[in-house]
Amino acid sequence: MAHLKKREIIILAIAAIFVLYAAYVYLIADRHKGEKAATGNSPAKIESVVSGVGDELTRNKLSDFDHYVITRSQAAWGKTPFLKKDLYRAWLAKDSKGKDGIAAAPIIYSGYVDTGRSKLAVLNGIEYRIGEELKEEGFVLKKIMSSKVVIFDKRAGSNLEIPLQE
Question: Is the pTM of this model over 0.85?
């Protein structure tokens, strides 16, 4: 046999231990399988165990608040507490007005990722890189910073600074 490494020796030793255990289980421990030991349980011991379990169950009774929380968690929700994107965008478009009463495009800067090689900005739930055109027509992402983004508005010919929404 060639010279074995330490790792191989350990693996072989573990395999040998399993083989010895299997031999013990099938050859030696199998002989005692049919023998039954006398239990000697008296009805008094069984009764004391049963009463102890009953006492433990009554001691750990749920409080009224715990019962209320459990029933409320199982009840169906009347309406969802989460805001739908379409409703939020409609509300934002109605609420935000640009210069001269013209509605500005609702752009929400909600995330910033800097991988070292490239920067990503999350605008209205979509990831953009510098130079990409936004889903909202007429806007191009010009600059990404951790606290704000600069977006070029093609229609107005101006830059918009949008701060990070936390």
Answer: no
Angstrom distance (rounded) from CA 76 to CA 73? 8
What are the tokens at 23?
Answer: 């031999």
Domains of the chain, earliest start first: 103-163 (2.30.30)
> From first to last of its 166 residues, what are the pLDDT tens digits of the chain?
578 889 999 999 999 999 999 998 888 876 666 666 566 667 778 888 888 887 777 777 778 888 888 888 888 877 776 767 777 677 666 655 554 444 455 788 989 898 888 899 999 888 999 999 988 888 999 999 989 999 998 888 888 898 988 7
Distance CA 164, CA 112 (A): 8
Q: What distance in Å separates the CA atoms of residue 76 and residue 147, rounded to the nearest whole number?
A: 40
